[in-house]
Amino acid sequence: MLPKNQKKLRVIAMSPANRWLIAFLSVACILIFSLHQAMATKFQNYDLNKSLPSLISQKQANNQANNQQTCRKYKYIGSELEPVSNQVLSNSQILFKTKSDNKALSLPAEPLPRIHQAAVLAKVPIMMYHDILLKKAVIYDLTPQELKKHFELIKSNQITPISINRLFAHLRTGSPLPKKPIVLTFDDGYGGHYEYAYPLLKKYGYPAVFAIHTSSVGINAGRTHLTWQQLQIMANDPLITISSHSKTHPALTKISDKQLYQEVVESKRTLETKLARSIIYFTYPYGNYDERVKKVVNKAGYLAAIAYGTPSEMFANQSKDLFAIARFEKSRLEKVIPQTWGNPTLPQCNY
After folding, report:
1. Average of per-residue pLDDT across 90-95
2. Where do the DSSP E strands lie in 188-230?
3. Is 264 exposed, middle or buried (0-12, 13-18, 19+ CB in 10 A)?
4. 243 and 211 in contact (C-beta within 8 Å)?
5. What SS3 state is found at 167?
6. What are phi and psi of 210, to 5 degrees?
7. Residue 67: per-residue pLDDT
């Protein structure tokens, strides 16, 4: 049992008047604390708003100084800048190397499949070739002598053939290119590519893309085609990039969803299995595509796709996106050469 004085205190604490007083004091404390917090936040924001413009200005000044230093250092970088091999070109940053600097240069890349605003300033033609034969059968054919004349024309005009990887990295980052770059492509995997085109490419040191529809490999009905052994030799050469050209070369816009999937996916799987390398580029048969086709090509794991004549021949930099990279037919070579321009400066030096 509690002493009498403790009982008395409990009675006083629980009286109505005391309960009201305690409630009043509690509310008052809460209001005072809230007011204090609001005033502190206001003054803190006031100080931040006063200092923020100066902080931004200082950061901009530092960035500008860094850009100027970089632009001076890499003033003539375009003729030698190459994307580092064995990197994932779909990354948000792409690494480049130069002959004069051992350090890798990293440039931010646009999200796939967008083309960088600095890349739009350049004009890189992609030229489309087909079969190379001793005796031409159709207008798309060339003789080895005619192909050699094309290469001599490229050489005499100081045009620099570049790899599709270098073009792709440029389109994603705006990276500088040689003053007058060009990309060479050969479609359909003809036997003349190995017999005539490939030796000439090696002689001149020119990189090229060969687009292969897998069902024709080793088939010589009508025209000769590359064998898997020949294709393996070419694929192992750093000058050569292999692109999928579908399985059976149909007009992709005119086939069912199931057939489209098989053409796009199975050709990639076959090439990667036979050649033991990733196939990241697709070349549309007949150059034809639509949004449905682009979507399937994208989902299949390709990073870019080469078209032709849709809606018209144009420079690669004028393409809608990386799944609609435009080309010129080989007969336009002499006309596009004077317009070729690689915009050989770093993106931050263009503006």
Report:
1. 96
2. 208-212
3. buried
4. yes
5. helix
6. -115, 120
7. 63
* Percent helix / strand / coil, the chain, rounded to 5: 50, 15, 35
The pLDDT score that the predictor gives to residue 8 is 41
Most confident range, picked from 29-33, 101-105, 129-133:
129-133
174 vs 263: CA distance, rounded Å: 32
How far apart CA 10 and CA 41 sit, in angstroms, is 42
**Helix pair angle (228-235, 267-275), 10° resolution:** 70
CB-based contact 130:186 (threshold 8 Å): yes
Count Cα neighbours of 285 within 13 Å in the Cβ-side half-sphere. 21
- Which residue has 């109505």 as its token pair? 16
Handedness of CA 222, 226, 229, 230 (dihedral sign): positive
- Domains recognised in the chain with CATH numbers: 107-349 (3.20.20.370)
* Length, in residues, of the chain: 351
Residue 28's pLDDT band (cuts 50, 70, 90): low
Instruction: Identify the DSSP state of 263.
Output: I
Confidence of residue 282 (pLDDT cuts 50, 70, 90): very high
**CB 192 within 8 Å of CB 133:** yes
Helix (H) or strand (E) holding 129: strand 126-129
Cα separation, 287 vs 92, whole angstroms: 28
Q: What is the pLDDT of the chain when averaged over all its residues? A: 86
Neighbour-count burial of 324, counting CB atoms closer than 10 A to its CB (0-12 exposed, 13-18 middle, 19+ buried): buried
Q: Among 99-108, 130-139, 195-204, 284-293, which stretch is predicted with the lowest mean pLDDT?
A: 99-108
Please name the residues in contact with 218: beta carbons below 8 A apart, sequence gap of 6 or more. Answer: 225, 226, 227, 228
> 125 near 315, Cβ under 8 Å?
yes
The one-character DSSP state at 188 is S
Percent of the chain with pLDDT over 90: 70
